[in-house]
Amino acid sequence: MNSIISLWKFARPHTIIGTITSVSALFIIATSQYVSWPRAFWISLISAVTCNVFITGYNQLVDVKLDEINKPYLPLASGEMTILTGKKIVWSALIISLSTAYFLSTFFFALVLLIAAIGFLYSWKAVYLKRQHRLAAIAITLVRGFLINAGFYLYYSGHNADIGAITNPLWLLIIFVALFSLGISWFKDIPDVVGDKTEKVASLAITIGSKRAFNYGVLVVALGYTLAAFAPIFVNMNGLNLGILTIGNAIAGFIFLGMASRVKPENQESIKRFYLTFWGLFVVEYLIFAIAAI
Q: What residue ranges are annotated as transmembrane (predicted)?
């Protein structure tokens, strides 16, 4: 039982839940199916989740010293899990992710390989995109905003690499998640300034200060909610329910602003609580689009 709990913590549950929700919602948006879940979907979900475990797990392997300061509760940083066990999980997850992706199609394999490669470069010390906040933000936004949304949608809809097949609703989702991912990139580093300074990681919070970094994140995410709420009124949403998109995003946007108004960026516990709840809104956004597509 303890091993399962350690594995769950190692996998970073909020990212796993976000991946499962986003992939499931993209299948519904692409196919309008929510009752029948074919075998190919479940295989693609396994590939996505194990790719997620590889990326987050590899980051923990190379950042043990950093996590001992910033996130001492993580299994490797706390000593709850050995480095050897962590390596076995990470490389097994990569093998499972790529082999299941290859089983589905060449396009899907290339997509997952690219996502895994960017995740690897984010943490690999020879490149370490994480060290510079602009490159880190680009990597997170590219993966979460474009590659997952466009790639999985095109695979599920049978269009593969045909970017022209991406619909207006999907472009709206891509833009929203790209802006939301910028928020993720900036918010996640605010509680970690002590360790990041020690390891010379130039996060936005260190570069311009925690409060300004937080305000920038609030601004871009609020812009995303504004676009998601009002764009359906003026742009053809290809049959998606306009009321659900507009009202749902307006409510979610107000909830986000209410959450943000209570945060004290200089207080670690305050920003940590906000960040985990913020991931809840990530899940909610995909639910809004999926329900609108039914």
A: 16-35, 41-61, 102-123, 135-156, 168-187, 213-234, 240-261, 273-293
**Strand (E) positions, the chain?**
none
If DSSP codes are grouped into helix, strand and coil, which group holds residue 123? helix
The CA-CA-CA angle for residues 13, 192, 254, to 5°, reads 65
Instruction: Burial-class residue 162 by CB neighbours within 10 Å (0-12, 13-18, 19+).
Output: exposed
Cα torsion 59, 60, 62, 65: sign:
positive
Q: How many domains does the chain have?
A: 1
* CA separation for the pair 286, 290 (Å, rounded): 6
- H-helix or E-strand spanning residue 91: helix 83-104
CB neighbourhood size of 32 (10 A): 11
Cβ neighbours around 136 below 10 Å, total: 22
pLDDT tens for 119-168 read 999 999 999 999 999 999 999 999 999 999 999 999 999 999 899 999 99
Say how far apart CA 233 and CA 164 lie, in whole Å. Answer: 22
Domain residues for the domain of 241 are 2-293
Per-residue pLDDT band at 209 (split at 50, 70, 90):
very high
Cβ atoms within 10 Å of 227's Cβ, excluding its own = 16
Count other C-beta atoms under 10 Å from residue 47's C-beta: 26
Nearest Cα to Cα of residue 157 among 145, 165, 148: 165
What is the CATH number for 98? 1.10.600
